[in-house]
Design brief:
Elements (H helix, E strand, L loop, with lengths): L2 H13 L7 E9 L4 H13 L4 E6 L3 E3 L9 E10 L3 H14 L14 E7 L4 E2 L4 E2 L8 H10 L6 H6 L5 E3 L1
Antiparallel strand pairs: 1-4, 1-5, 2-4, 3-4, 3-8, 6-7
The structure holds adenosine monophosphate (AMP).
């Protein structure tokens, strides 16, 4: 292959979402309005169908009291995906699914039909106005750490799980 052809391939790999190397990411799912369990299961299937995304391990569903929020108990879960989307594109796709599930944002931390967060995106550290990765509050929340530990135990230090043990979080 000539140097010019090699440069062209490298440029395409860097910009084309179809051929970019797949990244393992972890997503948090939550719902506390409407048919929350059905919505979370629907979201898992919808994530699997997103362009450039393949669904990996899915945690059980968990029932948790609202943390920094209000309304009925939440149904939470965590899934692993393999994705060729860049992190901002992945977030945009997740916001699209929140919209499809009827999400409205009347005020900060309002009850919601569906909340989708990116917990981890490979080993990336991102601090932009729209995206912080790793998710800044993931290590404080039993409803994230318990399902994450179920599918990826090496990512959750045992000491961290102990610190959130008093938060009510029931595996269904
Ligand atoms: P939420 O109310 O949980 O849907 O999140 C509100 C905003 O948080 C979103 O519009 C995102 O721009 C921002 N955000 C920052 N970091 C993240 C992340 N890691 N995952 C999802 N949303 C994030």
């Amino acid at each position: 292959m000539t140097q010019a052809a090699l440069r062209a391939v490298r440029a395409r790999l860097a910009t084309d979402p179809v051929v970019r190397a797949a990244i393992t990411a972890y997503l948090a799912l939550g719902a506390n309005l409407g048919e929350a369990q059905a919505t979370v299961r629907w979201a898992m299937a919808a994530i699997a169908a997103l362009p450039g995304c393949a669904l990996g391990a899915c945690s059980s569903l968990y029932r948790t009291a609202p943390v920094d929020s209000s309304g009925p108990d939440y149904i939470n879960a965590v899934v692993e995906i393999s994705t060729t989307l860049c992190a901002p594109d992945l977030l945009a796709q997740l916001h699209g699914l929140e919209q499809q599930a009827g999400r409205v944002r009347p005020y900060r931390n309002a009850p919601r039909t569906l909340d989708l967060d990116i917990l981890l995106y490979g080993s990336a550290k991102i601090h932009s106005p729209k995206l912080t990765i790793p998710h800044p509050r993931m290590m404080e929340r039993a409803f994230v750490l318990m399902p994450l530990a179920e599918i990826a135990p090496s990512l959750v230090p045992a000491a961290q799980l102990l610190l959130v043990a008093e938060q009510a979080c029931q595996r269904l």
